[in-house]
Amino acid sequence: MPRIGLFGGTFDPIHNGHLHIARSFADELDLESVILLPAGDPYHKTTPRTAAHHRLAMAEIAAQADSRLAVSDCDIVRQSATYTHDTVQIFRQHFPAAELWLLIGMDSLLQLHTWHRWQNLVRQCRIATAPRPGSSLAQAPAQLQTWLAETLPQGRLHILQAAPLPISSSQIRQQLATGHTSPDIPPAVLGYIRQHQLYCHTGV
User: What pTM, to 2 d.p., does this model score?
Assistant: First the structure.
């Protein structure tokens, strides 16, 4: 049975912290592939500042560094608001026999009960969560406690052991806007940014 990971994000821009977590996700769960999903129009966040086709292209460039990484425009091509439940459903249809893993941050996990059709979502896939400073399972609200009590013994929830790198997309955008380079971006991605003059304005 193939094991496939799904890792969504704004990726504005994609950076070494994203790639570190994606590789750790693949390593710890022995995934055949991790599919990066640049956001289209996520209903729970503000609209990404950089055009979707640029964020998609940067993710594709970054993914070339690891054969386990792939990129999908699934969330970009949909014209309506994108819900994680719907994205997972699409991949479940494409890979009916696969063991699907969805990677989300610990802060997002603690809000999982507020997501669109979350109870059906967790039946369609397993959840991996990346640790975040100040967030832990001990903070889970009552709405999630029963699910956690059932899920942890079943092996359907995995907490990544790898510590996230302290890299911020907003700080990278600030650096680029002031004419500086950033060591936290893969060189090929930085080349794309320079070629297309992205992040040249002062806003973040």
Answer: 0.93
